[in-house]
Amino acid sequence: MTEEIIIAGFGGQGVLSMGKILAYSGIMQDKEVSWMPSYGPEMRGGTANVTVILSDERISSPVLKHYDTAIILNQQSMDKFEETVKPGGILLYDPNGILKHPTRKDINIFKIEGAAEASRMSNSKTFNMIILGAYLKIKPVVNMENVLKGLKKSLPDRHHHLIPVNEEAIKVGIEKVQSLQTV
Question: What's the number of domains the chain is made of?
Answer without folding.
Answer: 1
